[in-house]
Design goal:
Blueprint: E1 2-5, E2 8-16, H1 17-23, H2 43-55, E3 64-68, E4 72-80, E5 83-89, E6 96-100, H3 102-114, E7 122-129, H4 139-150, H5 158-164, H6 169-183, E8 192-193, E9 204-205, H7 206-218, H8 223-230, H9 233-253, H10 256-260, H11 264-273, H12 279-298, H13 323-327, E10 331-334, E11 337-340, H14 345-355
Parallel strand pairs: 3-7, 8-9
Antiparallel strand pairs: 1-2, 2-7, 3-6, 4-5, 10-11
Helix pairs in contact: 1-3, 2-3, 5-7, 6-7, 6-9, 7-8, 7-12, 12-14
Length: 365
């Protein structure tokens, strides 16, 4: 189908994966960087596409862009308003290059070796004809298209991706936990910025919540390890309940609700003074939650024992300048400002467990 855009005439079609692999070229990555018309396909991206195609059935890709030196067009007696349909022939001597989608095509190539049934799947292809003997002779035109595609491109942040993702067990549980806690009349969901940007009354991002859940369920930040645990439906359902119960218990002792209901000035003050109102603070609480779970398993308790959490009220939770946090290297001063020490969540969790007389999780010892 022919269309008109700012660069001139463009053509849209559908090709099978097999046709894409057979007829579309990816630029030789041995060409010197300064002579390249596109960036190298990121191998992590390529492997991600391959795993996506091999492990999922409900897959979908956006279109790719193919630049060709020439293409024979034969009009068909079919039209839709101003659009025209053509039978297009790309001859073997026509120069061609994919300038957007090389990662997808490389991943498709790899996946077809293990899953040949994918060959009949289709990919949308937009074709641009440059009308020069080779695509390279239109270098500035081609590279500008690539630049225009990516110059102002802004990918979804981690929280947005989690919010919209229903395939990953971890992402789904993160969203389910918000719903479950809400049903318990705990306003935790209102404290979470699902778009990744905190507004007045919010304390954490959804990405923070995912890290929290990862530690509690698998003592790990590895999404692969966590998803492996949660792939078992019994595990998934159990952790959904346990995490919701733990959050409810935290709301009974930590002033989360007060922070959520504060005016903007008080809210900012609380975020700056409370040791838990940051990503590391939430991770530390996750390790405390993991410790409570391990304690229940070790002592064969019929349910989780949240009683030790009451002793949190004896700690200087709203004073980051307290000597306790400095001695334990949770916080330090830089240029007169109190800053949290990076990756100090395990130390903070260990201090809390010791203070509230809770046997710490194995990873904290």
């Amino acid at each position: 189908m022919e269309g008109i855009e700012g660069i001139g005439r463009t053509y849209s079609t559908k090709l099978t994966y097999a046709q894409c692999v057979e007829f579309i070229d990816i630029e030789d990555e041995t060409i010197p960087v300064r002579e390249r018309l596109q960036r190298n396909a990121d191998m992590a991206r390529v492997k991600g596409v391959e795993e996506y195609l091999l492990n999922r059935d409900n897959t979908f890709f956006p279109g790719v862009i193919l630049v060709v030196s020439k293409m024979d067009l034969e009009p068909l007696n079919i039209g839709f308003g101003s659009e025209k349909l053509f039978q297009a022939t790309l001859k073997s001597n026509a120069d061609r290059l994919m300038i957007d989608g090389q990662g997808r095509l490389s991943g498709i190539m790899r996946s077809l070796k293990s899953k040949p049934a994918l060959a009949s799947y289709h990919l949308d292809v937009k074709i641009i004809v440059v009308n020069t003997a080779t695509v390279r002779e239109s270098t500035k035109f081609v590279t500008q298209i690539f630049a225009d595609l990516h110059l102002n491109l802004k990918k979804p942040n981690a929280s947005q991706s989690i919010w919209f993702d229903s395939e990953s067990h971890l992402s789904r549980l993160s969203n389910d936990v918000l719903d479950t806690v809400e049903k318990l009349n705990i306003p935790f969901a209102n404290a979470i910025a699902v778009n990744g940007k905190l507004t007045t009354g919010q304390i954490y991002t959804l990405a923070n919540v995912t890290d929290f859940i990862s530690i509690i369920t698998a003592s790990s930040s590895s999404k692969k390890a966590v998803n492996l645990v949660l792939a078992n439906k019994d595990n998934y359902d159990l952790y959904k309940v346990l995490i919701a119960q733990y959050i409810m218990a935290l709301y009974n002792v930590v002033a989360f609700e007060k922070i959520q209901n504060a005016n903007i000035t008080e809210w900012k003050q609380e975020l700056n003074t409370n040791i838990f109102t940051c990503a590391i603070g939430l991770k530390a609480l996750a390790w405390v939650g993991r410790s409570i779970i391990e304690d229940a398993l070790e002592n064969e308790l019929p349910e989780l024992n949240f009683a030790p959490l009451e002793k949190l009220l004896d700690l200087p939770l709203n004073d980051k300048t307290n000597d306790l946090w400095f001695k334990k290297e949770i916080f330090h001063k830089i240029d007169g400002k109190v800053k949290i020490v990076k990756a100090s969540e395990k130390r903070l969790a260990a201090v809390i467990c010791q203070s509230i007389r809770l046997l710490p999780a194995a990873e904290l010892v």
